[in-house]
Amino acid sequence: MIASPADRERVIGIDIGTTNACVAVVEGGVPMVIPNSQGQTLLPVMVSVSEQGRRVVGHLARRQAVIFAENTATGLKRLIGRKYSSHAVRQVTDMVGFRLTSGGNDEPHAVLRGENVTIGELYTTVVAELKRTAEQYLNQPVHKAVVTVPVCFTDAQRQAVREAVQRTGLEVLRIVQEPVAAGIAYGIGQGESKPQRIAVYSLGGGAFEFTLLSLRGSSLEVQAQAGDPTLGGEDFDRRILDWLIFGFAKDHKLDLRQDRTALQRVRDAVEKAKCELSSLEEVSIEVPFIISSGTSEPLHLVRTLPRSKLEELSEDLIDRTMQIARGALAEAGVEPQEVDTVLLVGGMTRMPRVQAAVQDVFGRTPSFTMPPEEVIALGAALQGAALVHVSEPPAASVPVPPEKIAVQRALGLVVAGGNTFRLIEPGSGVPCDRRHIFSTTRDSQTGVRFLIVEGNSERGEENKLLGELLLEGMRQAPRGEPDIEIHFHLEENGTLLVSATNLETKEQRKAQFATHALDGVSSQSPGAGGGYTLEMKPDEELARTQQGIERLIGEIQRLLPRAELAVGASDMGMDAVRRARAAVERAKIAIIRGEPVVLLDTQNILRRTAVMLRGVTGGPTR
Ligand code: AMP
User: Fold this and answer.
1) Does residue 20 line the site of ligand 1, with CB under 6 A?
2) Which residue of 132, 140, 263, 465 sits 20 to 30 Å from the alpha carbon of 271, by its own alpha carbon?
3) Would you state the pLDDT for residue 60?
4) Is this prediction's pTM over 0.70?
């Protein structure tokens, strides 16, 4: 695996949502979400105090909440950085099972088993758990983080988040707005020079947020934003829950809401059913021995829920999100059809009806290639890697001619093997012109794709991708025979004009890119490995690598269940299985991102994983 400088620095990307939190890191140039020791990638944002007075967080807290709702803090994102007397805190007070009180300074405190705890402290507990997960997985301490917050967060809220994260010992490199992080994860702006409008539709467990971003140069800016902080997946769950409870009451004259444990079991079954309905047309909700009527046999809850019923029950919720989105667009004076890209964020956007509604409004298929619950953390990790990368001392120690503006970051091409071929070196004065003749690397190659990068790293994937240029229609010839001239012209304002000319036919392709070559700073863009997000034209070699990866993923997925059985519950064995799963997830992302160098790395990792699993299970599968 190629260890980029960004990898060695280990900056984690943190996303704390209303219901779930997620932590990610960039490894081998690819962003990946870090699973905990049980393989879970989402941490419930809940903190509970146990009977023994121990503070528990995440899944454990969620389990305790069934019986000890009054000792379990939830809704932390709605509370952080707010005043106790604010309307928002009053609203939360009505929604949650634990008590809130006013500490000094009008600061809300949670009262958990009689102990007053600040919201910031509880938030720190969640972040500390994410940090621990990351350190355990990476097997090394982590010191730096990029953290995401909603667009609507005020300075006070952002500051409270910053302080809560810093209390864990992490340095906050940057606070990024959530939709901007999503845009970064999707590689928006990489190599693009034309302005773009990007809509981010985010529907998570507890909140809805719609954002219109505009891309200018390589910078993503918020143009419009609207949302409902109390509308989310939990409302969908509640609709199903009410339908079930009402049906049960009609049949048995019993109100399940009176029994806390029964109610929590139904809640869990409801959420599971809702999620399953994103891929199935119908599910059966079964909660056996739900309650005893006192006089007869125990009762079971069994009900079939078709997808159409869920859609009927939640139609108005989806409509409301669309109204909010339309309102925000109208305020910005933008028609839905004028939006270039629509990104889906948040677990609820897995629901097919939500996706269809978004498509109806915008008249285009939304982008859904990244896991929507993880995409923000992935973007934060990419931003972190980029920040560490650009903050390194520039490799250019070449003296700068005093009378001229000098290039700070090299400009060049990625060549076979993944290295950067520099046409314009750091220290060059501007304007400047450089030419070089390239050729093909394979026999009968009729097209060449040039990846144009900015940065001082030798490795292509560690530089920022500015864009690409494709020269096609070349004569079939032995490799190395065709002559293609690449010409770079850098202007004083940082604009780079690139042309590729087939010297035999004089066929020419031209493109223009905005660069940061002169100021040495790359804004917004993921520098390390985050650059190659443009889809590559699948040339033969790339296609072969991708197919190899897909075959290996298939084999690993077939081997995994057998491996799990074979290793039993041994820690070492389960760790190997967990790493194999993580390798598969990273490989899927690598395929989406289509970065040649990273794909080769990924293939090697998968090969090793497959060999390991074959060893554990006693042979390959077919
Ligand atoms: P998030 O806040 O992004 O983690 O999203 C959490 C919400 O997404 C919860 O309400 C989940 O029930 C919901 N969710 C997760 N997966 C799915 C799915 N496959 N289909 C529908 N909703 C889902």
Assistant:
1) yes
2) 132
3) 92
4) no
